[in-house]
Write a structure and sequence with these properties.
Radius of gyration: 17 Å
Number of helices: 8
Distance between the termini: 20 Å
Number of strands: 11
Number of domains: 1
Oligomer: single chain
CATH topology: Carbamate kinase
Order of helices and strands: EHEHHEEHEHEEEEHHEHE
Strand content: 15-25%
CATH class: Alpha Beta
Largest sheet: 9 strands, mixed
Strand order of the largest sheet: 4-3-5-2-1-6-10-11-9
Helix content: 25-40%
Structural class: alpha/beta
């Protein structure tokens, strides 16, 4: 295996499937099966999932809402998604625990590095909700922070495209895909992989990022076994 312990970053929007809002049970079940496939290979897994299918802090700000209030609403949306994912994992026979950056007893325990690593070492999938627990930080930044806290080998960013391109491949047919790119090159080319805070955290701590299409069956397993799919961002 290329990776023994990973932090899987999923977007909230991905859970919508073909819907306009909320959680698509079929997509949720698909993701649970993908995660199960690597747990059965003894890969240790932490997960951070966004909340954009329910609420986005920036959206609230545009509508005149206080930014801090909006960000906390977004954090609560990640808790809802984490609970849904946990239910799907448990249905698939995969034990899991939800930890949170904000206090939401009794649905999630408070996040701590020691607690998360303890559960991971017990063979449980750890879903870390509530962002960083602070406003003004995205779930990208939460992913980078939590990956470092659980001592993950890499962040696996599951998206709906098969890697990083020179331009948006859905809009530009001439967009070039990168198989591997350095942090410095990605920064110079202004490629929007993660927000700058998250990207800097990964770069300064030599934490690789793999961007891949999570919606294709078997891709997650291919990534952890070292198959060349997606794009690797490395130092």
């Amino acid at each position: 295996m290329k990776y023994n312990r990973v932090l899987l970053k999923l977007s909230g929007e991905a859970l919508m499937g073909n819907q306009q809002y909320g959680i698509d049970p079929e997509r949720l079940s698909q993701y649970a099966k993908e995660i199960k496939s690597i747990v059965e290979e003894n890969i240790q897994v932490g997960i951070v999932i966004g909340g954009g299918n329910i609420f986005r802090g920036f959206q609230g700000t545009r509508d005149g809402m206080d930014r801090i209030q909006g960000d906390y609403m977004g954090m609560l949306a990640t808790v809802i998604n984490s609970m849904a994912l946990q239910a799907a994992l448990e249905k698939s026979g995969i034990p899991s625990r939800i930890l949170s950056g904000i206090a939401v007893d009794p649905v999630a325990e408070s996040m701590s590095s020691r607690k998360a690593i303890g559960y991971i070492n017990e063979g449980k999938v750890v879903i870390i909700s509530g962002g960083t627990g602070n406003p003004y930080f995205t779930t990208d930044t939460a992913s980078a922070l939590r990956a470092l806290e659980i001592k993950a080998d890499a962040i696996l960013k599951g998206t709906r495209v098969d890697g990083i391109y020179s331009a948006d491949p859905e809009k530009d047919p001439d967009a070039k895909k990168y198989d591997t790119i350095t942090f410095e090159e990605a920064y110079k080319k202004n490629l929007q992989i993660m927000d700058m805070t998250a990207f800097t955290l990964c770069m300064e701590n030599d934490l690789d990022i793999v961007v891949f299409n999570m919606n294709i069956q078997g891709n997650l397993k291919k990534v952890v076994t070292g198959k060349k799919i997606g794009t690797l961002v490395t130092k």
